[in-house]
Each structure stands twice: as structure tokens, then as C-alpha cells.
Specification:
By secondary structure, the protein is mainly alpha-helical. About 50% of the residues lie in helices and about 5% in strands.
Length: about 100
């Protein structure tokens, strides 16, 4: 997890339209984000490969994965990360595929 990526998660979770969907209170969002940060590994970005992806807002996700030595990048939108597995050696998987492969 990089600081910019964490701040992006925070910004998205606190948007009014997203709060209507997830129904979490501001206190619940803070508790979730605190637990999320505790479960995350801090990653320092030593190198940026921009532009690599079609959507510039996805670049910080790729940078965290590549700089952190991630084995997989788990997303609901694998199409947003074309060529990542070949170029960076990071598998791009849906949450369902990741759980099927790794949940025991």
C-alpha cells in the first residue's frame, strides 16, 4: 500500500454516492480504513512506469503492486490492466479467481 493509494481508497469510500451504496457511517469507515491500513504492507515507490495503462487513475495501483513485489493484483476489472502480467510478472486476477486459488 502506498500513501497515495490509501488516500484514494479513503476519498472513494467517503463520497456521498458511495456511502449511499455501502451504508457505512463515518466512524465505521474510519474503523475499516484503520484495519485496512494495519493489514497492508507499506510500499515505497522507487520507479514509476507511467504511462502504462489506458486509465491514468489505475497507475498508482500498478505502481504499488510492481514496487511491492506483489504476486497478484486483484481487481474486479482485469481488462483495466492489459499486459501487466507479461511486462511486470504480476498476475491480474478477479477476487473470485484469487479466492478459488488461494482459500483453503
Amino acid at each position: 500500500m502506498t500513501t497515495p493509494l490509501y488516500l484514494e481508497y479513503e476519498a472513494v469510500l467517503t463520497r456521498p454516492e458511495h456511502q449511499l451504496v455501502h451504508g457505512l457511517t463515518p466512524a465505521e469507515i474510519r474503523r475499516f480504513l484503520s484495519a485496512f491500513a494495519s493489514a497492508s504492507e507499506a510500499v515505497e515507490v522507487h520507479f514509476r512506469w507511467r504511462p502504462t495503462l489506458p486509465d491514468p487513475s489505475d497507475e498508482m495501483v500498478l505502481e504499488a503492486a510492481a514496487n511491492g513485489g506483489a504476486m497478484a493484483l486483484v481487481t474486479h476489472n482485469p481488462r483495466d490492466f492489459p499486459g501487466v502480467e507479461t511486462k511486470f510478472g504480476v498476475r491480474v486476477m478477479t477476487p473470485g479467481a484469487y479466492l478459488k486459488e488461494n482459500w483453503r
